[in-house]
Amino acid sequence: MHQKEFRILVINPGSTSTKIGIFDNERPVFEKTIRHNTDTIHQFDSVIDQYSFRKETILEALDYEGINISKLSCVVGRGGLLRPIEGGTYSVNEPMLADLKIGFAGEHASNLGGILAFEIAEGLNIPSFIVDPVVVDEMDEIARISGVPEIERKSIFHALNQKAVARRVSKMLEKPYEALRLIVVHMGGGITVGVHKDGRVIDVNNGLHGEGPFSPERAGTVPIGDLVSLCFSGEYYADEVMKKLVGQGGLVAYLGTNDARTVEEKIENGDEKAALVYEAMAYQVAKEIGSASTVLHGEVDAIVLTGGLAFGKEFVKKITDRVEWISDCIIQPGENELQALAEGGIRVLRNEEQAKEYPGAKTPVGKPLD
Q: Is 179 helix (H, G, I), strand (E, B) or coil?
């Protein structure tokens, strides 16, 4: 039976760039990174004020490539800092747009994803979606308890890549994602270790605000008492301490770079400090995987390593040597966000899953290509 072919535009806004792609079903037809002049970006008072400018640059890029947007079946944008929601593909509706525009959980370029998708799709009378934003929250209640009643553990992680990779691995294992027990490790500027059970991420470290392994840019879990002393030493303002934890922690703090390739070059040139710190990062990742395995009572179908750091064969080996006794390790390097967004839209258009509703009105279904 001939499968309908859907054409999808995907949009992933970054701080000074916008990545776009055209997919015919899962097949990429066109991908481009539109880089924005920083002086132009700084002219806007807020991120949200950039949406008209970014929409125009997207449409100009598509027109330059001769892409007829009237053939689109839907538009999918990167999900932003919304209210905590379960994973899946969501229709962009008015309540979502309102939360994106006010920056409900903070201002970030990803908030533009849903807005741009809606703005372009509305004029074509086709649906717009977001897929697995970073605020995906499927944690078990027991995982939320921190030990301090005023502080609850939060689910903030690389949901888009973790979920996409987990679904791909489920096909490799020929078993539904909803029936698997996986530990998925995203290793990039931040590192998150997610416990996937029956289609839900029931526990995960907060990869944004210092929990879990240290990473190229984040400090991870640090000794609490010493951190409190640092905060009240009188030597640092609150934002300076936060920068030590997020952005200037981890490899940057120890070695002056967040680039793993640079660190590996240092190690090849005999830098013993670089070798120790790099191995310590792998050690902490492995330790977090071991901790995560207890959540599943040791019954783990696979450990999946993904993200940019998964390209580093030596780094990966330092991790797998410590954890492969738990379960088989599957390496899925990189983070193809455009592909993951397209796959989320395709699942809905094929009726493999139903688009979820951020509280609000229903939206139209997509149209196949002629």
A: helix
- How many Å apart are CA 23 and CA 12, to the nearest integer? 14
Among candidates 6, 11, 26, 7, which has minimal Cα distance to 338? 11
Whether 106 and 246 have beta carbons less than 8 Å apart is answered as no
pLDDT tens digits, 228-255: 999 999 999 999 999 999 889 999 999 9
What is the crossing angle of helices 313-323 and 260-268, to 10°?
90
Q: Please state the φ and ψ torsions of residue 195, each to the nearest 5 degrees.
A: -100, 110
Joined together, the tokens standing for residue 119 give: 């703005």
Region 343-358 average pLDDT: 95
d(C-alpha 168, C-alpha 172), whole Å? 7
Mind giving me the DSSP string for 309-320? GGG-HHHHHHHH
Bridge partners of residue 8, in order along the sequence: 23, 74
Helix (H, G, I), strand (E, B) or coil at 306: strand
| Residue 90 β-bridge partners | 130, 356
- Distance (Å, whole) CA 187 – CA 180: 21
Question: How far is the C-alpha of 230 from the C-alpha of 236, rounded, in Å?
Answer: 8
Burial class (CB in 10 A: 0-12, 13-18, 19+), 172: exposed
Closest listed residue to residue 6, CA positions, set 74, 65, 88 = 74
d(CA 203, CA 139) in angstroms, rounded, equals 5
Q: At what angle do helices 272-295 and 260-268 cross, to 10 degrees?
A: 130
Banded model confidence at residue 361, pLDDT cuts 50, 70, 90: very low
Contact 129/88 with Cβ under 8 angstroms? no
pTM of the model: 0.88
Strand 302-307 versus strand 181-187 pairing type: parallel
